[in-house]
Amino acid sequence: MGRFRSQLSDGVDSSTIASLLVNFMLSDISAKEAQAKIVDTYGADAISYDTCKTWIAKFKRGDFSLQDAPGCGRPMELDLKLLQSTVEEDPYATTRELAAMLGHAQSTVESRLEKIAKVAKLGRWIPHQLTDYDIMRRVDTRTSLRTLQKKYKFRDTLITGDEKWVPYKTL
């Protein structure tokens, strides 16, 4: 029964509701009236108006199956371990290539890359967290730049923009 079953309240037989909806549709009863009659008989949580409207429209199109169409419902989950190993195997792969390799949408791959803390830098995927070596390197660089600034005031001659540093010197 697929999604149709999940949209009905517990204890209500979906085939009974479906046959009622077909009869209401053939009798030219609106979805609102059909839902009201079903709720009167089976209780307030028997079926929602939206479900009623959707299924009556489906029956009017001539589709009397209660099975969901292929591709309906929540998409399958992307295995994060598989994504991690694929990225480590080919760190230069684009999100489009990764999506094709894994059989998922590009947007899914992009959001899952964020979950496994990978960011694209210089055309490859790298961990977002800094290693101890990277942290020490940044501290050393900061210390040396501070020392240079005290001596030469070099920051006054730099123009920065979008991660680019350009030395500027007037002649």
UniProtKB/TrEMBL annotation:
InterPro entries, A to Z: Mos1_HTH, Transposase-MT_Hybrid, WH-like_DNA-bd_sf
Q: Where is the signal peptide?
A: none
List the Gene3D superfamilies hit by this protein, alphabetically. 1.10.10.1450, Winged helix-like DNA-binding domain superfamily/Winged helix DNA-binding domain
- The domain of life for this entry's organism is Eukaryota
Mos1 transposase HTH domain boundaries: 25-63
State the protein's name.
Answer: Transposase
